[in-house]
């Protein structure tokens, strides 16, 4: 079993990329930028955070990515819970436009 800080293997990365496909083009563009920037260094823990964020609706995800809302302000309790995990918060900071370079 992988430790949380272990790098994501090729198969897991491929599955994660497939899971991250979204209905809103804007979300897809930001997620694609994220993968281009971080795919070589993505950890198992960060992959879990990304999975947590993928449980959100497209509109909630867009609101978070564009800083229109913070996770605790999402109206739906399951969405607030998914977006508020430590792993999701870490990845959210990496996904948002203007995130510092790795």
Describe it:
- By secondary structure, the chain is an all-alpha fold.
- The protein has one domain (10-95): DNA polymerase, domain 1, CATH 1.10.150.250.
- The protein is 59% helix and 0% strand.
- It contains six helices and no strands.
- It has helices at residues 10-19, 25-38, 44-54, 58-65, 77-83, 86-95.
- Helix 3 (44-54) packs across helix 6.
- The longest helix has 14 residues, at 25-38.
- The chain is globular, with a radius of gyration of 13 Å.
- The N and C termini lie far apart (26 Å).
Essential attributes:
globular, mainly alpha, DNA polymerase, domain 1, 102 residues, 59% helix, 6 helices
Which spans of ≥5 residues are poorly predicted at pLDDT below 50? none
Overall shape: globular
Distance separating the two termini:
26 Å
Mean pLDDT: 92
Number of helices: 6
Strand fraction: under 5%
One letter per element, helices H and strands E, the order comes to HHHHHH
In this structure, how is the largest beta sheet organized?
A: none
What is the CATH H-level superfamily?
Flavinator of succinate dehydrogenase
Domain tally: 1
What's the level 1 CATH class?
Mainly Alpha
Number of DSSP-assigned strands: 0
What is the percent of helical residues?
55-70%
Topology-level CATH name: DNA polymerase, domain 1
